[in-house]
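Bump. Still looking for Heme biosynthesis protein HemY structure tokens.
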Amino acid sequence: MVSVSDKAKEKIVELRQKEGLTDNYAIRVAVEGGGCSGLMYDLQFDTAQQPTDHIVEDKGIKIFVDRKSLLYLAGTELDFSDGLNGKGFQFKNPNATRTCGCGESFAV
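Sorry for the wait, here they are.
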């Protein structure tokens, strides 16, 4: 359902180590209302699995996605870019019909 690119995996592992977090910390990916396009991505480390979470593991990275967010994120790849056009995590979401310039909000 939600996948992680090789570059995103490397950055997640690096950030976990930098913050002193163990491998028990998963990535929580969520969708919230807001942003210039109507919906925003939220990405954070988490160890607390919720009863409504869908759990995916890709390339050794555990990902928590709540049931509501999963509807918006099906088929999405989490990527990481450190190029001249921007640095940070990017969501390659096939469900998004419109995204803002910063890439942090979208519409379906």
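The first strand starts at residue 2 and ends at 4.

Edit: fixed formatting.
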